[in-house]
Amino acid sequence: MTELERRNRRVAFWGVLFAAGMLGMAYAAVPLYELFCRSTGFGGTPRIATAASSQVSDRVVTVRFNADRHVDLPWRFEPLQSQVKVRLGEETVIWYRATNLSQRPIVGTATYNVTPDIAGQFFNKLQCFCFTEQLLLPDQSIDMPVSFFVDPDMDKDRRFDRVTTITLSYMFFEARTERARLLLGNLPPATGRGAATRPSAGSGKGG
Predict the structure, then answer these.
(1) Strand 47-48 relative to strand 123-128, pairing
(2) Which of 63, 87, 93, 114 is the most buried (most CB within 10 A)?
(3) Do 113 and 174 fall into the same domain?
(4) Selected residue with higher pLDDT from 4 and 132
(5) Continuous H helices in the chain
């Protein structure tokens, strides 16, 4: 092997290694970006809190609720209330309802955000169905809780004086994750129609 051939092989080796590294970084960037958004509220992503606020302000904001689903997901998805008025720091629990309109079990997962985007850093979720995948049997309906509070620190920043309404939005689509496959794989061979259910207050909690 000539020196030129050895040099070309070294270049090719490092080129493949660099490409593999960039591909790995691209895959890692997605969960890192999601973690960054959840931690900072960037892009209207609500933060995830582990405890309720210790302070409650007199300032009141209106929180509206929106529900969307992917066109390929045969579910009905809706909030059970259109809006609530809450004081900053006040823990509030609201409910969404999902119904599987198809004749097959389906696992769904939800993405979410708040508008205006700048409110994301102050909107804190304590509990949410969106933290994990949801399995619905044919014709089954479930009521799913969301527990949240708006950080009272929002009242300390004059830039947010004009924020009087926050909209919390969800988009449900069919999950094709490993956990979704496990949920479907653990179902009995003959899965009948499901009745409407409401999970306990602790259901759907996660981080």
Answers:
(1) parallel
(2) 114
(3) yes
(4) 132
(5) 3-40, 178-185
Residue 192, SS3 per DSSP: coil
Contact 103, 166 (CB under 8 A): no
Is residue 203 situated within a structural domain?
no
Site of tokens 């070309």: 8
CB 127 within 8 A of CB 146: yes
* Distance, CA of 35 to chain centre: 11
Residue 157 sits in the same domain as residue 178? yes
Query: Is residue 191 a part of any domain in this protein?
Result: no
Q: What is the pTM of this model?
A: 0.72
Domain hosting 148: range is 47-185
Residue 28 has pLDDT above 50, yes or no: no
CA distance 179 to 187: 13
Copy the structure tokens of residue 79: 């909030």
